[in-house]
Design goal:
By secondary structure, this protein is an alpha+beta fold. It contains 3 helices and 6 strands; from the N terminus they run αββαβββαβ.
């Protein structure tokens, strides 16, 4: 689990590097039907920022945690990018898409952690 927590911390660093905001982790390790141990969710203000945050997360995860995503989906539309790191799923949203899908609310027994925005 230490490696997973290191990856989560590194992903959050990558998000903050490009000013992604409203960062929340959804810890689901104890939920047998969950698709991953963690979701890391953030909001961006433009499709360009969604792309920049995605690139930053990939770079930070590769350089600091030695991890590459198995899949990256949605980069073309710029509204919602999902990055699959196996134990960690990263969701980078435009505000409207995040509100619509409300991933934080899917598992009522998950542990949510909110991170302060970086100026």
């Amino acid at each position: 689990m230490e490696a997973t927590q290191h990856l989560v911390d590194t992903i959050i660093e990558g998000i903050h590097e490009k000013k992604g905001r409203d960062v929340v982790t959804v810890q689901m390790e104890q939920i047998l039907t969950a698709p991953a141990a963690y979701f890391v969710i953030c909001t961006c203000g433009s499709p360009q920022q969604v792309s920049a945050v995605c690139d930053s997360v990939e770079e930070f995860a590769r350089k600091k945690a030695g991890e590459k995503p198995a899949h990256v989906i949605g980069k073309q539309n710029g509204q919602w990018v999902a990055m699959d790191y196996g134990t960690v799923m990263v969701h980078i949203f435009m505000e409207e898409a995040r509100e619509h899908y409300s991933l934080e609310d899917l598992w009522s027994d998950a542990v949510l952690t909110h991170y302060p925005d970086v100026d």
